[in-house]
Design brief:
Elements (H helix, E strand, L loop, with lengths): L2 H23 L10 H10 L1 H43 L8
Helix pairs in contact: 1-3
Length: 97
């Protein structure tokens, strides 16, 4: 599989995990104005949702790291190719005997 295809798959899966994490968390999250008891009650009622959000956030971090590594390797390959082309352009043609 081409690195560009792997990078695209990584980007799309990161976006899907990002959306899934917020869907799993739901709309009734504690705000900054919530007191301690309200936060404890929310976690008691939504513990599974909070765990799913935490796991998807961990996978998002892994995908971002993987995507960055693949992107770096792809760019390094393009730079290497370009430098080889520049280097070979300045060399006189070799005549084979």
């Amino acid at each position: 599989m081409k690195p560009s295809r792997i990078l695209l798959i990584t980007i799309l899966s990161t976006g899907a995990l990002y959306v899934a994490s917020f869907v799993a968390l739901g709309g009734s999250v504690p705000t900054i104005d919530s007191n301690g008891q309200e936060i404890v009650d929310w976690f008691s009622d939504n513990g599974t949702r909070a765990r799913i959000y935490a796991w998807t956030a961990a996978f998002i971090s892994m995908n971002v790291y993987l995507g960055g590594a693949i992107g770096f390797l792809w760019v390094a390959g393009v730079v290497r190719w370009a430098l080889q082309r520049i280097d070979s352009a300045g060399q006189p043609e070799r005549k084979h005997a």
